Amino acid sequence: MDSRTLDFERDLVATDLILSNEGGRKGENYSVLSNPSKQAWYYLSNQRPDEPIIFKIYDSLVAPGVSRLTPHSAFVNPDAMEGTLPRQSIEIRALVFY
User: Fold this and answer.
1) pTM summary value
2) Euclidean distance between the first and the last CA atom of the chain, given in angstroms as a whole number
3) Which of 7, 11, 48, 56 is nearest to 30 (CA)?
């Protein structure tokens, strides 16, 4: 999603995240409400393994023109040919302090 099209106050809902592989530890995540009249979502068609995408998960800075987070999602592609292998994803998180 283009974070500039996100209404942080209206489009996000805090959601419990239960980590079953960590003994049921509870965290928090955001669910994104649909707002098609405002939100702009993008799909990277034919993305190759040597074309990674990097996006901001969270920023505590609240300032005009600064993205606080970038919602992202997955979906079943109805246009994929039968038998097509699903895309693979590797998630790496880094904390940056400056």
Assistant:
1) 0.70
2) 26
3) 11
The answer for residues whose C-beta is within 8 angstroms of residue 36's C-beta and 6 or more apart is none
Q: Which amino acid is at 43?
A: Y
Backbone angles phi, psi at 18, to 5 degrees: -95, 120
Task: Render pLDDT for 29-70 as a digit per residue (tens, 0 to 9).
Answer: 899 999 999 999 988 888 888 988 888 888 888 898 888 888
Alpha-carbon span 78 to 91, nearest angstrom: 24
The closest of 81, 94, 11, 15 to 54, measured between CA atoms, is 94
- How far is the C-alpha of 18 from the C-alpha of 65, rounded, in Å? 33
